[in-house]
Write a structure and sequence with these properties.
globular; Glutathione S-transferase Yfyf (Class Pi), Chain A, domain 2; alpha+beta; 10 helices; Glutaredoxin; 2 domains; 4 strands
């Protein structure tokens, strides 16, 4: 049965499930939500905390992106998006939590929103908020680069859920000055971004492509 993703096109938390679905070759539909509608009674029935996205599959309704990613990898086990050994699996889980606990707030919310999202929609740019977010964003980027080290991907030599979740947040860093500054000391992380951006699943879920999906 087709997977249904309810969310706002362009959100990294909507994009990472779409990338995972593309990696699996699974049938899916994006049920696009206009800005503000995720607080309506109809959507709150799906997600009582008023966050995006929410999901449907084979009569099951649920939410939380990490839960979806793990569920998808279980119901469509091939190709696997989780490593087979305990240490690599630990690294994947650690990176997933780093994304949700630190990267989403400091990099996406603190920097990308002001430098990419706000200008795209004609919203004012809060320079003070960007400056305030930069120190913690640097800690996050430095640590991710340290953990990546010389590996090809975040949990070793194969793409995992960690890479899929993280690229949706870090893909914007090369597009603005503060992001370029954060990446400058870390050629390994810049190479990882380029490696991920070249994947067909990532190319199929760009802002423009997701907009086309939403309009279909």
């Amino acid at each position: 049965m087709t997977f249904i993703v309810h969310g706002i096109p362009g959100s990294p938390y909507v994009r990472s499930p779409l990338i995972a679905l593309e990696e699996k070759g699974a049938a899916y539909r994006l049920q696009a939500l206009p800005f503000g509608t995720y607080k309506t009674p109809d959507y709150l029935r799906r997600q009582p905390f008023g966050k995006i996205p929410a999901f449907e599959h084979d009569g099951l309704e649920f939410y939380e992106t990490q839960a979806f990613l793990r569920y998808l990898d279980r119901v469509i086990p091939s190709p696997s998006l989780a490593p087979g050994d305990a240490r690599s699996l630990l690294r994947m889980d650690q990176m997933l939590n780093i994304v949700d606990s630190y990267v989403a707030k400091t990099v996406s919310g603190g920097l990308t929103f002001g430098r990419v999202v706000a200008p795209k929609f004609g919203m004012p740019v809060d320079e003070a908020a960007i400056a305030a977010a930069l120190p913690d964003a640097r800690i996050a980027v430095d640590e991710i680069a340290r953990l990546l080290d010389q590996d090809a991907y975040m949990a070793g030599d194969a793409v995992s859920l960690a890479d899929i979740h993280l690229i949706c947040h870090l893909c914007f860093l090369p597009l603005f000055a503060e992001g370029q500054e954060l990446l400058a000391p870390h050629p390994n992380l810049s190479a990882w971004i380029a490696r991920m951006e070249a994947r067909p699943s990532v190319q199929a879920t760009t802002w423009e492509k997701v907009g086309e999906l939403a309009a279909a």
